[in-house]
Task: structure prediction
Amino acid sequence: MRLVACAASIVALAVAGCGSDTAVEPVWGGPPEPGAGGVVSVDGFASFQGDVDEHWEGSAAMAAGEFLRLDERTATTTTIEGKASAEGAGPETVVVTLDGLLDDSIRAERWTLGFEQDGGVYTLTAALREQRCQPGRGHQDFSADDCV
Result:
């Protein structure tokens, strides 16, 4: 019995020692649920961006894909449209539309995302989510209103 307890202690110390050298990678879980009028908080993503140094931060479209976790989304069609201000300096708007969603109520989502560029990094400053309902399940235009 003493041998088992001693072996368990050694294993516990080894695991604890290994964990102290390993850095925890920040992970973005995806956008939070929209609030009133479809407005989505960007604070969590701003904090996440402050903890990483990734290639996607150099492109507003790529940052939009990271914010929305497009790698985990399922849609028949995904379109990403970016519009920069004059001469490319200043705010940029990216509109991402996910159409043909596998949902019995929501047919499509449209995200309008605002970015500011500073030192080659695009920082998300605003997010709006609107949806279009499946036929017979509510509004057919993009709106922040819920589907049935």
